[in-house]
């Protein structure tokens, strides 16, 4: 599902607002060169994450799914000095590429890529007294609900919990999908929709990443 205008408009807006610099562009190039899935967020989504992190004055950010570090760069750039971003990537070779891209973006002091299973890395994380200001999940859809539980436990009032790919080309309309990613995000949306501590906006996207959406929740 993609009208050719959607992609053109997204490129147009990305250029109009000068969203991508060399570090971001080269991160996308590195994904193609490595033959990795082209699943990074788009520039417009990157700007949204940057804005959310800035609005919440995020000092502690957690990301699940670094891929090659594209969204990680957007989020890392919103941190004040002394801020910290831990991004978790299950695939060791993706994690290594993400580290290289983060280094090239000049963010190594504040951004750490940890390789491993996200739930295990999260459980072992020592946050001290810090709360998570922004949590972004973009991998391992079947475990989205579990990441949500962890994020809520470590959130404060006003923290943001965002999740990519919650529309999946409309496949969430299927009541019983055989696709575990679809079921993962359906369970996630169900939980968001009734959660007393969360206020959620769903932002549908069309464009360079086909038809999908991001859930942006605020902790009350
Ligand atoms: C998939 C994962 C993503 O994070 C994405 O943005 C698009 C697709 C996937 O696993 O299918
Ligand atoms: Mg995604």
| Rg calculated over all Cα atoms | 16 Å
User: What ligand species are in this complex?
Assistant: 3,4-dihydroxybenzoic acid, magnesium ion
Strand order of the largest sheet: 3-2-1-4-5-7-6
The helix count comes to 8
Q: Classify the helix fraction into a percent range.
A: 40-55%
Cα separation of the termini: 35 Å
How confident is the prediction overall: mean pLDDT? 97
Residue ranges: pLDDT <50 for 5 or more in a row? Answer: none
**What sequence of helices (H) and strands (E) makes up the elements?**
HHHEHEHEHEHEHEE
Total beta-strand segments: 7
Strand content: 15-25%
What class, by secondary structure content? alpha/beta
The profile of the biggest β sheet is: 7 strands, mixed
3D shape: globular
List the helices and strands and how they pair.
Blueprint: H1 4-16, H2 22-34, H3 43-55, E1 60-64, H4 70-77, E2 84-89, H5 92-104, E3 111-115, H6 118-124, E4 132-137, H7 144-153, E5 155-164, H8 180-194, E6 198-205, E7 212-219
Parallel strand pairs: 1-2, 1-4, 2-3, 4-5
Antiparallel strand pairs: 5-7, 6-7
Bound molecules: 3,4-dihydroxybenzoic acid and magnesium ion (MG).
Magnesium ion (MG) is lined by residues 39, 138, 164-165.
């Amino acid at each position: 599902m993609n009208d050719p205008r959607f992609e053109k408009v997204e490129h147009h807006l990305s250029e109009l607002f000068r969203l991508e610099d060399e570090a971001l562009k080269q991160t996308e190039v590195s994904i193609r060169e490595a033959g990795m899935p082209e699943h990074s967020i788009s520039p417009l989504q990157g700007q949204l994450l940057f804005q959310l992190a800035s609005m919440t004055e995020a000092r502690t950010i957690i990301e699940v799914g670094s891929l090659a570090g594209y969204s990680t760069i957007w989020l890392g750039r919103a941190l004040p000095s002394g801020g910290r971003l831990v991004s978790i990537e299950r695939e060791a070779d993706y994690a290594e590429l993400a580290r290289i891209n983060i280094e090239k973006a000049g963010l190594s002091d504040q951004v750490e890529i940890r390789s491993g299973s996200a739930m295990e890395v999260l459980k072992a994380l020592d946050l001290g007294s810090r709360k998570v200001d922004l949590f972004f999940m973009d991998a391992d859809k079947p475990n989205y609900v579990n990441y949500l539980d962890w994020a809520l436990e470590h959130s404060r009032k006003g923290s943001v919990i965002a999740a990519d790919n919650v529309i999946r080309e409309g496949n969430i309309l299927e009541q019983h999908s055989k696709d575990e990613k679809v079921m993962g995000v359906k369970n996630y949306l169900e939980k968001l929709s009734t959660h007393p501590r969360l206020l959620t906006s769903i932002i549908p996207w069309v464009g360079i990443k086909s038809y999908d959406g991001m859930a942006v929740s605020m902790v009350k």
